[in-house]
Write the structure tokens for this entry.
Amino acid sequence: MVDVTLPPELATRLADLVDLCDGPATAHVRVVFIDERFIVTSDLDQVAAADEQAALDRLLESCNRLVVEQCRDFAVHAGVVAQHGAALALPAESGTGKSTLVAALVAAGWDYVSDEALVLDSRGVVRPYPKWLSLHRWSLERLGLALPGSDAAERAVRPAELGPVASTATTLRLRHIVLPERAAQTSLKPRARAQAAADLLRLSFNHYQDPTGRMRLAADVARGAATWTLALADPVEAVQVLQETLGSD
Amino acid sequence: MRFARADDVIEQELDGQFLLLRSGTADVLHLDTVASDVWRLLEEPASRDELATELAAAYDVEAGRVAADLGPALDVLVTHGVAVLRADD
């Protein structure tokens, strides 16, 4: 249940978080204004924000993380896109460029599933988590998107602004697992499926909930997927490489 | 001295390679082919020489040829706490 007195943007973005929860989820986040800046403190971390919009973005990022960790399904830190019921996951740490790459793939016609979490139910079906993306000024320029209205370094982007969003009515199966790594030149090469399964576990938010079951699930989905390493120099180039190799599957 | 599997290790095999996770930790270990073969042999505790003999038989080479691979594999297993070195009974 979302409080209807909230500002519209906040209510919409919180509703995205609520859709992932199968039951009550708790997030403790505090925002204070000290020394000309906002300090956002959560159960996970404490970050500073220069203005109200940035503080709102940081608050929602903290809520997002806390909700994903409490999700009862297997959740992995990853960007995810899909075409015709086949999902492509990009498991990666923050700062690798997966949000920008996801945005570029959606702009190229893939359906947006998430830029934050690959969520797999017990049958290995992918659950969409289409939260708003946070893109840096460089990424917005590179993808031809509107820049922030001020000196802000980044902007929250509504998924529909980029392109199609995956429908929850479509059953998504994981078809490709692509591990992006920063590199000087863009290329795509096969990766051992066992290594890809290890990547999913290493980057998971909550495999500790059921270690044996989650290891089995990671192995099962990797067994059914094609697995790759993407040397990532530029997101637009990477989309071309992915489209050429994977887009026709 | 014999190498043995540590207690409370969760394993999952995929394409002949193992994923290992020690209970109560978040550190997932992916074993390459050689380390996976060593792990498989450690279903029973074994000395370094016994492991070298078994691996050599499996790879159809002389025992001396596998030493270069066996050492690093054992180092990985012991460093990550999924294998231990125990005194002979």
Notes: The longest strand of chain A covers residues 172-182. Chain A touches chain B at residues 192-195, 197-198, 201-202, 207-208, 211-212, 215-216, 218-219, 222-223 (CB under 8 Å).
